[in-house]
Write a sequence for this structure.
């Protein structure tokens, strides 16, 4: 467990889930290790993290991790790109280095998006 979990809150939410007719599963949340619940709608939820994608196999687990990492990378690069562009727009003179950085970041972003599509 690599995350602080509010146990009281979790227990309260779990009893709420059970009262609403949810069923406790023998699977646990990949994020906090608490048991997962299946709602009447069929959706699987964690009492802390809400809807959880249940991973069935090792390859699916790897795929889920990869896609999470790629999403994170895309977000991070977009943020870097934004601040680089902002710096460019704030300066009167075009900063060669900053311009190269923008191109470089765009290149990475394109690659990440390409990998995501495959
Ligand atoms: Zn959880």
């Amino acid at each position: 467990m690599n995350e602080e979990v509010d146990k009281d809150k979790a227990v309260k939410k779990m009893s709420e889930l059970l009262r609403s007719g949810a069923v406790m599963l023998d699977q646990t949340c990949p994020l906090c290790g608490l048991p997962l619940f299946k709602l009447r709608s069929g959706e699987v939820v964690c009492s802390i993290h809400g809807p959880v994608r249940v991973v069935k196999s090792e390859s699916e687990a790897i795929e889920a991790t990869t896609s999470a990492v790629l999403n994170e990378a895309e977000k991070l690069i977009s943020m870097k790109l934004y601040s680089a562009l902002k710096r460019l727009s704030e300066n009167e003179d075009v900063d060669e280095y900053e311009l190269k950085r923008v191109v470089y970041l765009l290149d990475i972003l394109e690659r990440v998006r390409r990998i995501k599509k495959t």
User: Anything to note?
Assistant: The mean pLDDT is 88.
